[in-house]
Amino acid sequence: MRWISWIFWGVVLALLAALLHYNLPRREIVRITGVEIKLERIDPDSVFWAASENDAATTGPVERDVRFIDTVRADGDVMVFRNEDTGGGWPPYFKFDSANLQAEARSLVSSATAPQWVAMRYYGWRLPWLSVYPNALSVKPVAGPEVRLIPWFNIVVLVLLAALVWGVGVRLRRWSRRHVSPWLDRGDRRVAIWSEAIRNRRAARAERKEPR
Q1: Which UniProt key words apply to this protein (predicted)?
Q2: Which residues of 124-140 are buried (b: 16+ CB within 10 A; e: fewer)?
């Protein structure tokens, strides 16, 4: 049965890793090639788009304008970001300045011959086959594509999360030793007594059935 436990905890860890990877901010060194506003058909229940007050009043897919920022990496790969306010929803970035961010991105548009590299801070995934885009949070000019950026925010969050998990685990083990283990020990003793009684009864019956 141990393999079932390994599979269960493996699935739990994989889901936790996916949740953190999607919601924690990341930064990409890119060159902005353009900004645009496109009409998108969005499912109000989708977790890959920011919630809108107008979406809450509808039961089916809605159409609304979404800001996009087109970029190119140093290796030539393209990366498209959506630029939506998160408001007070999840994840809790409290982003209300998507219009300002769009104006900043427009001012940083550059060409391949005179590139202006920027660090785009964002969260989310790019899944082309599902029309899923990461959401841009901020943009900052940098010296070049070789700039090394240390994710201090993610490091702090992961350290605090690890400390929380460790603390909860320690307290759960203490609680288990104080309350669960004695109960299990009493249960084991009862099972042992019942098993011994059953064996004695069987032995007594076997003795009575033996011919003299």
Answers
A1: Membrane, Transmembrane, Transmembrane helix
A2: beeeeeeeebbbbbbbe
SS3 for 184? helix
pLDDT tens, 165-187? 899 888 877 776 776 666 656 66
Structure tokens at 8: 């269960």
Return the biggest CA–CA distance within the chain.
109
* pLDDT score of 98 more than 70: yes
Which tens digit of pLDDT belongs to each residue from 125-143?
A: 999 998 999 999 999 999 9
What H or E segment, with its residue span, contains residue 123? strand 117-123
Structure tokens at 197: 């009684």
CB within 8 Å of 154: residues ≥ 6 apart: 24, 25, 26
